Amino acid sequence: MTPTEHAAPTPGVEDTEAAPGKGSTSPALRVDGLRKTYPLPGGGRLTAATGISFTVPHAGALGIVGESGSGKSTVARMLVGLARPDAGRIEVDGRPRETRTPRRAAARLARAREIQMVFQDPYVSLDPHLTAADCLRTALKLHGRPLDLAGSLLDQVGLGAREATARPSRLSGGQRQRLAIARALAVGPRVLVLDEAVAALDVSIQAQILQLLGEIREETGVALVFVSHDLAVVEHLTEEVLVMRKGEAVEQGPTAEVLSAPAHPYTRLLLASVPREGWEPQLVSRLRG
Ligand SMILES: Nc1ncnc2c1ncn2[C@@H]1O[C@H](COP(=O)(O)OP(=O)(O)OP(=O)(O)O)[C@@H](O)[C@H]1O
Ligand SMILES: [Mg+2]
Questions:
Q1: Residues 234, 243: Cα–Cα separation, whole Å
Q2: Tens of pLDDT along 213-258?
Q3: Is 45 helix (H, G, I), strand (E, B) or coil?
């Protein structure tokens, strides 16, 4: 049994988990018509996301791209339960996900096992007082999983014996992000949402973490939703991509197609904005008008 396969239901813990993803006919994640608005200080409402629909198969990866303020994190936050949608449905393994925070602890834990999130800054989600191994054991214990899975989780994300006994402040940025990924996996989630999770890392560490994520989804069947402003990273990691602009999905489809032959002018603009060989900042400002 791999460390992230689901443990047997724990007595006393409400078990709302579906059968393991592999072989299931439902996608790992189905999102239909998600919408979120925020009140504007001068009256009216800002539409941070609207009409967002997509599916992600088991072990699949979907990228969400778009410029700053386009609504990417809003979608990520709705998925994980940090923001409550105004409208729309989220299904995990074919089952509706509760968009209100459940009152009962057992139901909250069951919901946490559906979707886990990795943030750009792992300090947000890591307890500074716990060593890496204790951090994982705490998560495993909370979810009624065997504590000795901590060792294999550390292995899985490439952290060794020295890192196991270190607190987050003694880890490098890349090591902290590995720990944050292991902490999320400790729960045995169906879906992992990563919001700019490699954005703060230098390029070679980014490459290692991307490699790691590819291995993890193959090994565990976890589905990834990968939010990034970096098109190269999305191209590398995902099969499907959703391009957001001002809260709407302006284009979505297979990543290779969308990025090689973008249909929407906004996607072309995003691609033209990426510094690469032959890049022309003047062209980008002209396109932006
Ligand atoms: N809690 C909130 N209250 C009010 N407005 C918000 C809130 N969260 C986000 N917004 C607004 O919603 C819009 C979308 O924000 P969001 O954080 O989803 O963008 P983003 O695509 O993740 O941007 P970035 O690439 O900079 O992270 C922005 O205009 C933002 O100001
Ligand atoms: Mg964001």
A1: 11
A2: 999 999 999 999 999 988 888 998 999 999 999 999 999 999 999 9
A3: strand
CB of 74 sitting under 6 A from ligand 1 = yes
Alpha-carbon span 159 to 10, nearest angstrom? 28
Alpha-carbon span 133 to 288, nearest angstrom: 49
| Tokens coding 56 | 């992600």
For residue 187, what are the CA distances in angstroms to 47, 76, 138, 168, 258?
Answer: 33, 18, 10, 19, 33
Give the list of residues 6+ apart from residue 257 with CB closer than 8 angstroms, or none. none
- What pTM value is reported for the model? 0.87
C-alpha 226 to ligand 2 mean position (Å):
11
- Ligand 2 centre and the CA of 2: distance in Å? 32
Atom of ligand 1 nearest to the CA of 244: 21
H or E element that contains 276 = none
Pick the closest to residue 187 from 139, 235, 154 (CA basis): 139
Paired strand residues for 100: none
In the chain, % of residues over pLDDT 70: 87
Q: Is 103 exposed, middle or buried (0-12, 13-18, 19+ CB in 10 A)?
A: exposed
What counts of helices (H) and strands (E) characterise the chain?
11, 10
Distance CA 35, CA 53 (A): 10
Single-letter code of the amino acid located at 105: A
